[in-house]
Task: structure prediction
Amino acid sequence: KQEPDIILQQTVPAHWQRDKGKAVFLGLASRYPKTTVVWAANDLMAMGALDGMQERHIEPGEHMLVGAIDWTPEALQTVGQKRMVTTLGGHFMETAWVSVLLYDYFQNKDFGGEATRFKSEMTALSGSASTVYLEKFRPENFAKIDFRRFSKAWHPERTEYRFSFASVMEQISPPVRK
Result:
């Protein structure tokens, strides 16, 4: 609504399912044949839209751009193949942040005086970043993540909580220094 060059044709529920995503896409593609962007509320529905594009011989990434939310492995591979433009994610890390808060609380580090509502840090992965994520964020690398570094119980010098997915990824794959 804020962008004059973008016309939102319609929003339609697909119930978080791939097959419904495909069916909805096929219906909308017939109704709005000049559509150039599809945004799905989760990766499964976006993958369904891509299935519908294949059926319609629409080339994703060229004739139509697709994006979604969740960082599922299949969607990340599809982004790496340039069939999807992006997938947003990182919100699953909230469970880790809550675990840090609970640990601190049980270590008598009451956070009652602080803002304990956290907005999910949603990060867009596109292009090669999706491939890097898939390569690095694997179960065998999880043991490298030290969540103590976010804890006030372990780091009493901290004056506020600073949670970020980027700081977690640095532990798995430190940035290259020149």
